[in-house]
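Let's practice the habit of predicting before peeking. Look at the sequence and jot down your guess about where helices and strands might fall. Then scroll down.
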Amino acid sequence: MLTIPQALDRLDTIIAAARTAGADAADAVYAGDASTQIAVRLGTLEDVGRSEGEELGLRVFIGRRSANVVISDLSPTALHEAAERAVTMARLAPEDRYAGLAPAGLLLNGTPPELDIEDSHVMPPEALKALALEAEDAARAVAGVSNSEGGGASAGRVVTALATSTGFAAGRSSSSFSLSASVIAGEGAAMQRDYAWHATRHFADLEAAAAIGRRAGERAVQRVGPQKLETASLPVVFDRRVSASLLGHLAGAITGSAITRGTSFLKDALGTRVFSSGIHIIDDPLRRRGLASRSFDGEGLPVRRTALIEDGVLTTWLLDVASAAQLGLQPTGHASRGAGGPPGAGTTNLHMAAGNQSVAALIADIKRGVLVTELIGMGVNGLTGDYSRGASGFLIENGEITVPVAEITIAGNLKAMFQAMVPADDLEFRMGTNAPTIRIDGMTIAGA
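Done guessing? Here is the structure:
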């Protein structure tokens, strides 16, 4: 894997080669990663994995015609051959009047902000194995746990770099550490599984292995003996393990590509109240040590903290250069891309701001409802907003969480669901997208 200066040197070489071959403009991205993964089961090492890879993607423009190539051979000869091949392909490509690089005046100038997303801590395989075993042992020690799907630990590092013929050149390096355990409780047909997991940029921020394992075991035991429910309209409370998925549906509905194609149920919602008053949803690429933090976007634009939903109102689309041009707007710094293909748009560290009441207060007046802790399937229609997913969790009776439930389907429409959301005060930043526990009244529960 290359260092950032080495990667930028390769990008400079291939862009220069593309210009020499006849390209009017070009950009290139480097992505390299290396990681070690350890898996254990029943106290025994089950698998050791080491993955390393790197690739370089070049995008060239001849007028409004463009082409992309991706290579893994980064030798000087391969770089020049790829540049010539890309230019040849671009000459044959159809014109796209919206394609192009970000204007030079919009690019990030100066040194990118420091986000503290790289930890130099070295985790040898033996240390990862010890953590995985400790997590699994703690999970298996919980009374009622009958079997194990295993424990896992990993450590990795990623280097990315971007350069354009309009003058942008920068890179970033990040680290990651993760730990998990998954176990089974009960016997025979009554068996239930559950898990716990944590990932961080810095090893010092990783939750203790024993705590992760113990949570996995307790969760599995709590799910034993689930009931099925009758079909009804009930309040549904999304545990924060799954509530972040609701923000993912919002993000997908406000990307520039969905808006330009007219395939979003929110295509006419900009500037209108999409959520109830008091709801704030923020995208913050500059969060220190954030799992999705970045100091520039996929086209070299500066990034900033943005309230996508401000007091319930949708304030912006997520726009890359192409979708912004098509809509007659400015790009928003949300472009994302890998080595292959043109940029798209998406979020980074996305979260819904916490509410002002505890989970206990949130459910206190629910006579009968469901706490969802696991979602199954992807039954969401991005065009209409119709929502239907398999789920399991727990019954709520008279304000108390009681027995486990399984094999149910929860259904509604995202437009109505967004308007009905009430967040609790238990927000934690454990993933790239985070939300507190969320209550939505009037959803349809389809049981057996």
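How did you do? Residues 232-245+354-446 form one domain.
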